[in-house]
Amino acid sequence: MSFLSPTLFAVLIPLAGLPLVLHLLNKGFPRHFKFPSIELIKETMARRSKLHQWRHWILLLLRTVFLLLLLFAFLQPVLKRFGADPADQSGRQVLIVFDHSVSMEHKGDGPTSRERAIHEANKLMDSLGPEDTLNLLLMEPNPATCFVSFSKDTAETKRFLSQLQPGFGRADVNLVNAAAARLFSQPGARPEIYYLSDFARKKWANASFTALPPAVKLFFVDVGPAHRDNRAILDARPSQAEMLAGDTVPLEIAVGNFSQEPFHDRVTVTLDKKFSFDQEVVIAPWSQEKVTVPVSVGGPGVHQCEVRLPADALEYDNHFFLTLSVQEKEEVLIVTDGSADRKSGAYFLKTALNPFENEAGSLLPRIISSGELSPARLAGVQKMFFTQVNPLSQPACDAVAKFLFQNGGLIYFLDGPADAENLVALEKVFGPNTMPMRLSRRMIATNVTAGAQQIARGEFQSPYLKLFQGDARQSLALLEFYDYYQAGATSAGAVLLEYGDKSPAMASLHYGLGTMLLLNFSAGEFSSNLARQRIFPAWMQNLVKAISTSEPPPSSFAFGETLHTEIWRNEMHSEMVSPAGVPVMTQRELAGERCSVTFTPNQLGFYTLGSPRLKYAFGVNPASDQSDLRPIDKNLLPTEFSDQHEAHFVAGSGDYDELAKGRPIFHWLVLGALAFLALESGFQFLIRRPAA
């Protein structure tokens, strides 16, 4: 307990002895007996009560306590609260750490958590004294302060808060603590940090305060809503790296349900603000689910794709923005030296790659012979198939090796009599021990004694077997192969499918930047039933897209990232435009015919460059880990750091005033004095009765 007026001790404390002085003076007065016999009778009756015998000392005690309580009330006593010492008149250094993440925009109780935090910060600043200094630090991807150092300008701090826009980034407690540690440099001050946050566990579970000086006191102000239910789109991305004009691309969308109730609604995908696709989604409480929405990407170019959920209390994570880069139709070579009739493997391959009339599909298959293989013919090609090829010449092997090394993709059907010889020739160019299988005897329909071969085992996590995952694996069990090579696996590459006799049915290898798939079967009508299965066209088209090893540009970005791209020199006149339609300031660096463009987004949505035809687009989204609003255990947070720093949860004007001035208790002393005065009066009435 402290006193706000300790200088009155010397004046008021002697007054506490006034009852004792009066008592002693009263004992010294002369005693007169006008009627000794009557007084003797009264005295005899009074002596029968022990209470009457002690009446002077009891009255002395009651009156002394009454006077002490009354005197202490004038000293303005206060109790220490949250470890603060009101008697310490040195200035306080108050740092307000303001959570500026997207979770603070939740409207569970009406106003957003950010608006409640501003209100609490204003109440805290109103409690500061004339000697106190303060600063404001935003908890965001790049922590920013209101002042360079601590200041007494509370008006400017309030103005800074009033102009604060919604935050969309991630809150990093450890990063902001490191920034706070650099601010506390003034010796002798009383450092205090007030964290205004919703204390969602995703951002506070791994918080560390070791960077802060030991003298700093920590105060946590919870401004989170009582009702924290939220649904969010956590991620959305195309399931294939390469998208061609006319493709239908499966869009994989991750949706989170952070509430106690199951979520049953629809997720909607809008392409270029014109075409919509939707899919029903059912999510259990406190769980996440993935939903796949087929999207027709349309023509070549950059397309803006927006994914939406129905509105809830946190609107910003109900949208997800991504871009789809669609290429022109792709030429795919089918290299064959066999016949191209309606029963050959080459015919079925060509039909599977583009089953549409007038070659309306995204893949343009072209049939050539192995004698046409040359670097010039393969210059503009990224994918090709081999089926029923003759022995490859040395120039052809060199052209294939260069094609693969420079990021090409080759799918080789081992269905010709010269394939064992060709693999040996290619291995000499690739390097020793690079082939994943060694071919031996070729089994054809006329010499198979054990019937058709079927797939016995497989590596179904491979992207080349994606269509056979889960229940779709039964489609693989329907395949029967009559012509194949008995083969043995090597330590090179990877075996993806295996026959019952342990011969590899499918294997892969990487050479340079390219990929080569070896399929130990044929698509011909008399060699297998593969071409008659519904899954055959989808599988072949999936192999073409999955065999690409080029890294596609990111389809979306998180808020807070610094984005960059490269444009051509003649495109430098174009301006980057924000989602609000306002030009964005960018940093540009010229390098030959290319120009590097760098900028930092400050809004959610699409940033675009190029008009009237869109050339570049960037979809910017909030951090996905801010959507789970479940709070951290409030009892755990202060005690977790009690061995390092003194920490408390506080809130409201009352707590802030008590931190600065302590909790006043003078009114309790006045009430106590009145209580003892009432006791003294009651005791006087009690002792008069036996004396009457």
Between the first and last Cα atoms, what is the distance in angstroms? 46 Å
Largest sheet: 8 strands, mixed
Q: Bin the strand percentage.
A: 25-35%
In order across it, which strands form the biggest sheet? Answer: 16-15-17-18-24-23-22-20
Derived structural class: alpha/beta
- Computed over alpha carbons, the radius of gyration is 42 Å
- Describe the oligomeric state of these chains in a short phrase: single chain
Molecular shape: elongated
Percent range of helical residues: 25-40%
Give a description of the structure.
The protein is 26% helix and 28% strand. It is an alpha/beta fold and 692 residues long. The strands form eight sheets. The chain has an eight-stranded mixed β-sheet, with helices on both faces. A five-stranded parallel β-sheet has the order 4-3-5-6-32, with helices on both faces. A five-stranded mixed β-sheet has the order 8-14-13-10-11, with no helix packed on it. A hairpin with a 2-residue loop joins strand 23 (504-511) and strand 24 (514-519). The longest helix has 26 residues, at 666-691. The mean pLDDT is 83.
